[in-house]
Design brief:
The chain is mainly alpha-helical. The protein has helices at about 1-30, 35-60, 70-95, 115-140, 145-170. It is built from five helices and no strands.
Length: about 170
């Protein structure tokens, strides 16, 4: 009798299980997938990070003058950091189901070390402002991982801004 009841109820159990699984996946998808706005902002952040990683590397290669070795080293170190940022953001956006950009925002190298530093300081200021927006949006959406990622990146960007500002100060 018990076997008969199990067989008869298996159709019912299958329907219930199917509905539960579908509901579970729908909740998980909504939980892990970011809004279109956040995905677009992450893609813009990738483009910005690609831009400065190339920009800083070319500045490292082309900087001239008495301070070229020290300033060039800063450019090289920051270029590597920015590329790591681009990779981390790309990993996150891919996880969230976004399509990754391959195009950096416009690259501006500059001619003198002073001009390079001014360009880079402005780029870091833009990144700091934009990343604060991403932090606020990800917090609003309940995306703790993206928020923490950008809080960490923001810390690096503020350090870069401070370094460029310090290098621009007059003796």
């Amino acid at each position: 009798m018990l076997l008969y009841m199990l067989n008869e109820s298996s159709s019912f159990n299958t329907k219930i299980t199917s509905r539960l699984v579908s509901s579970f996946y729908a909740v998980i998808e909504r939980w892990f997938m970011a809004s279109k706005d956040l995905k677009e902002k992450l893609n813009m952040a990738i483009a910005m990070e690609l831009q400065v990683s190339i920009q800083y590397m070319w500045q490292h290669v082309t900087v001239k003058g008495i301070n070229a070795a020290s300033v060039g080293g800063v450019f090289k170190q920051f270029a590597i950091t920015e590329m790591k940022h681009a990779e981390a953001i790309a990993d996150r956006l891919d996880y969230l189901g976004g399509a990754l950009t391959t195009k950096p925002t416009p690259i501006e190298v500059g001619k003198s070390s002073k001009e390079m530093l001014e360009i880079d300081k402005a780029a870091e200021e833009g990144a700091i402002k934009f990343y604060r927006e991403i932090i606020a949006l990800s917090a609003k959406e309940g995306d703790v991982v993206t928020r923490k990622l950008f809080e960490s990146i923001l810390s690096d960007e503020e350090e870069h801004h401070n370094t460029f500002s310090t290098l621009l100060e007059k003796d």
